[in-house]
Amino acid sequence: MKISLLQQMYKDVLAGIPLAKESHHYSSLINLCVEQPPGDECCHQKPLPSTAGGVGSHQDTDISDVVPAADDLSNSFANMSSSFCPREVMLLQLTLIKMMVAKAESQEIEPHTRQKYCEIFVLLKEAKIDSKLIHLLGCDDRLLSHMASQSLASLVYLQLKEEDTLNVPWLSFSLNTLLGFPGSARVADCLRTLAAVLKETLKDALVPGAGVLKKLLAPLDAVLEGFYNAILLHHFDSHHYTSPYSEATNNLISFIDLLEALLASRIELDLPLRCQRILFLKVSYVLNVISSSIPYVIKKKFILLLKKCVLYKSREDAKSGSLFLQAPSLCEDMLALSNAVLQVVNLTWLNQIPLSGKSSYFGSSEAAPGHDSQGSSDQTVLRALSLVLLKALEFKIHNSATEAEIKGDFESSMSQLLVFWRSHVKPSPESHPVVHHCEWLSLVFMEQDDDMWEAAKALLLIYLKFDRLQGDAADNPSQKEEESWKFLVHAGGYNPHCIFLFFLEKIAFDSTVLLDFLISSETCFLEYLVRYLKLLGKEWHQFVDVCNHFDSRHSTFHTVSVKPPDGEKQSFVTGDSLQNVVCETESQTPMSLTPSHNCTVFTAQQGDNEAAEWNQSDSLTTTDSTSLLGSLQSLVNYDSSEDSEVESDGKECLVNTKQLPSNNEDEVRRRETGCSCRDDDQNPRTSEVSPLKLKGCRTSSCRTCMASSDNIGPLRVMLCKSTKCLEELQEAISRLQRRNLFPYNPSALLKLLSHVEKMSKSMNLQ
């Protein structure tokens, strides 16, 4: 009899139909009976009812927005048979409690219906439903325990929001459990429930979060700090942590989830509580845990949590990181985190972290035939660790006033990171070997756009800071000092022009990819590009030099070597560790640079055989870029604008290079430059700009990279391709802006791009 009434109540609540009977009737229906443990044989052996079959007017209603934690279970309750065991009845009661809390908080439900639900909750509180839910947390049945935790969290938050008071039984349970660690039981259940209450607070956009959070966390503040110290100072090499399914491991994973919720909640408070700052202030505990012998899944969760810390992504839909960083407490916390990270990295901490944890495969724990998982590194963790270190360096350097404060940390940390990348990133057999340190960034981060631009921005800011410090130290640096500075920037792998050009090369100079990044709100590419274009305006000649170095890498006519002046003592960020990274012998790694003092920044191979290898690697690189662009589809077809042909300069660039006669030396040379254009009265035959694009090509840009048949000047291939890519980006943004289709005002960006175009044209006139 009771189960049929519960089913009817479920249907009515699901459909939003007002409950017709008295509140006492419904409170008695969903009041839990936990005097006897709900784990009899019937409950464990009988499977949950299937969703197939049965009748009911609301069985197909989508309730995922109402009960996201139990939607699969809820869809089957409306049409069950009457042969229920106690476990299934209890699951239905817990589902109804969570559903009713969601309905009571929803503004889409009629006020009188919401009032009815609140009356039922008052009666349930009098019946001590909270104590019964706490008792149920310790149930061996994982599903019952999980549903009890979710329902308890919903009731605690509802009471906090509606009555502005904390639930006393839940608070007492939490305090006793945390203070009693490690002797207390149900630690994981306590942590999960607290994390669920925090998430409920952050989800509610209608209630100011600051007051609710203070009321919730203030009584637990000191206790949580003590628990942080206790659980992270454990002996993680003991047998309790050998299995990923042990109670100790479960406690630690639940605590990581709570730390993530606390990190997300700190943005709501102008002055965060101690428990919201403890992860920053005592991050050394976490770093020690990561290097211990705990299961790999825990290490990975901690590393990804540190990545969220350094990116200050406290909430996915929160305020921007730059605004968040203005808080004085966060500046202090970030500096403490950065110092701790750099200290352990300089002690070879990175080498103690294995990145070859066993991968999980969909539907199986084993790899598919032909898939070699041995020796491959976890790229997600590799990127996260790299980003944590780069952002720590950025913040430490940003808050340092003199070169002496940052010289040692930067030199040592970057050398460790470069060795770390070389150990764990294996270029594909089809690609060319890595001969330049600035290329590592694009190799490591290319598969993750948001991380890549965060890393690139960090290195750009580091470069700007060093450049400013060097300028302050010497108003008129000598040529030797400038050469030393160039060498160290390349050796450290953070030359911004190299990094940008390597990225353009990876995307085959496709301007629509850049446009996608500018439109997307998921990356910091806009901030990076604005900063870089400002630098480009000041360092145009350095940019041209780097482009020439790129050309030398792809041909045999130009060998460029950058080396520190002989006998000169380096005056800026130098030392044996960084020198050794650049000048390692070939016996150590096939990707090392030229040894000894002739450390080439770009190595141009010499001899017929080596030249053939370069040509082969270049063609393979183009193939890699082509396949990569297949997955980088543009968000919008930007060439479909109505006046796109009208706005072109009447110049055309054809993709089909087979139209070029192979026996024409001049045409082949122009094709190799990557850009050849015609005027109306010139030869109409043209060649490719990139293997994937059909774009308008400006004569002024293309003249930059064309060389005469008698080899008067160098072929400026990279300069032509890169500046043309930026010009195409400028044209696409302008078209979208004229139609009011660009998501923000790009005037400042267009001004910077226009300045680059002017500098490019001025070179063509020389």
TrEMBL record:
This is Lines homolog 1. Residues 724-757 form the Protein Lines C-terminal domain. It comes from Cyanistes caeruleus. Residues 193-547 form the Protein Lines N-terminal domain. It comes from the Eukaryota.
